[in-house]
Amino acid sequence: MQTKSDKEEQSEHNNSSEIPWLVNIYGNGRRCQGVILSSWWVLTAANCFLLMNPSQVELTGSHGRFSTNTVSQFLLHRGFSSWNTAPNNDLGLILLGQPVDLRRRDMWPACIPKEQKPYDVTEECRILEQSNNETTKLLLKITIVESLSVSECSKHWPGSTNERNLCVERKKPPRHADCKVPVGTPVICSDPAISKWEVMGIDLYNNYKSTI
Q: Boundaries of each Peptidase S1 domain copy (predicted)?
């Protein structure tokens, strides 16, 4: 994901439990984010593992009920290039130490495309971040973005021609908006054909690019 600093809209909601499939990942005093794919697996960025060696996953049910899970194994995408080169296939899977009980009414996995989809610049997209404020209340920060074509993206970020990357720009920035989000923060887009929001990208190590 690549962002332009002159177009953004951000809002904060107390009800972070609207998205129980969004998780916080902790290790070495740092935080990444990820999304629940199934009872055993969490999707995040490969650089999450390189940056912090994750050891714990924090889950939040739809009623704001916290629980934690251990990290059993971390698998990098076999085509991952590393953070010292142009990001490519920057995806990783976390195998949890214990399965998440998806039979609970307040916990369910994220929706992801079941097959490769054409790059649709008309889709409405959001970047989601879950964090605690000074009063330890869990907040959901939503950044509204719009997709850019590869040719339009390369005008602002030369060399950004990889069609496997999702390129977006923020809309209507508030004053003093912070554009940085944790590694592994998901980008979700609305597919009008099925009337659902799907995870289409994951934020990478440099807070400016995501990969599909």
A: 20-212
